[in-house]
Amino acid sequence: MTVAVDQALQAWMPALPLAVAYSGGADSTALLYACARRWPGQVYAIHVHHGLQAAADGFAAHCRQACDQWQVPLVVAAVDARHQPGQSPEDAARRHRYAALAAQARTAFDRPMASVALAQHADDQVETLLLALSRGAGVAGLAAMPAQWQRDGLHWHRPLLGVSAADIRQGLLDQGIAWIDDPTNTDLRYTRNRIRQQLLPVLEQVFPQFRDTFARSSAHAAQAKQLQQELAQLDLQAIGVPPRIQALQQLSPVRQANVLRHWLLQHHQATPTAAQLQELLRQIGACQTRGHRIHIKVGYGFAVRNGANLGWYNP
Question: End-to-end alpha-carbon separation of the chain, Å?
């Protein structure tokens, strides 16, 4: 494989066996091929079939052929990627994809996987950061994508975050390894594609080292995000689950916002908009009488007052 990919994998020691999320595109192809060569017999592949476009069956067929050639066990997981009212199609597809990867990694092969590898690279990281900036995101968004984390009893890794898309594709060309291009990747109706095709070339000209410098900024934001999470955990222990409204009111507004974001995400997988969170804080501050009512949309559900506590539900 390419020098860049090989270098990225040299310092990476995932717990084995390892499952690679394999779409058939250039990035996951390079990652799966490199991993299969480095840890023969310990690497498996999972292809998530979203069924969202006519070419999806062809993607799965290509992945089967490549895995047969490389002697890598493959499972194709079909998912229903439809989104709920109020949920973006992209977010729904992402949630379904991660759920499918976790389920298949645990049960689909002759043994449960210890780790899952994803093929996002340096350009993906820059795109994620720019999207977060365009939306006015806080430190959680500016932290972009983590290189590793734990969830669902698995270790998750993105070992190619320091490798550019161009280096990955050039390495595949040098090795004569085929991949498939998703036709939606050239559709300029999607903001991420416009960033990739129109903005990144300009950044390359003006700031040639932008991938490295943006990555450092994201790393700083990730540290701040960790501090916020640790404080939120301490505050949530103090105010309880569900949160006691009177205990919430004893915190400063910024700590209220921090702990509420944490509670909503960790316990309800809900993310409020800035406007929703500000209105929720206003209503919590105004909640001084027994009869005061709280009932506002937050995320894809509603925050409500349940007696002395704050609740959330999705109708």
Answer: 50
Q: Which residues, listed in sequence order, are joined to residue 306 by a DSSP beta bridge?
A: 309
Gyration radius of the chain's alpha carbons: 22
Cβ 186 vs Cβ 198: under 8 Å:
no
State how beta strands 43-49 and 18-21 pair.
parallel
**Whole-number Å distance between alpha carbons of 86 and 98:** 20
How far is it, in rounded angstroms, from Cα 185 to Cα 264?
A: 32
Three-state DSSP state, 301: strand
**Nearest-angstrom CA–CA distance, 296 and 276:** 8
- Yes or no: say if 52 and 81 are a contact pair by the CB < 8 Å rule: yes
Query: pLDDT digits over 137-194, tens only?
Result: 889 899 999 999 999 899 999 999 999 999 999 999 999 999 998 888 888 888 889 9
List 49's β-bridge partners, or say none.
Answer: 78
**Starting at the edge strand that comes first in sequence, how are the strands of the sheet with 301-306 ordered?**
295-298, 301-306, 309-313
Give the per-residue pLDDT at 1.
44
Which residue has tokens 């993607």? 59
Residues 6+ apart with CB under 8 A from 217: 129, 142
Angle at which helix 210-239 crosses helix 253-268, to 10 degrees, equals: 90
Beta-strand ranges (E) seen in the chain are 18-21, 43-49, 74-78, 115-117, 148-151, 154-157, 295-298, 301-306, 309-313
Quote the DSSP letter at residue 196: I
| pLDDT value of residue 89 | 61
pTM of the model: 0.85
- Cβ-in-10-Å burial (0-12, 13-18, 19+) of 158 comes to buried
Strand-strand pairing, 154-157 and 295-298: unpaired
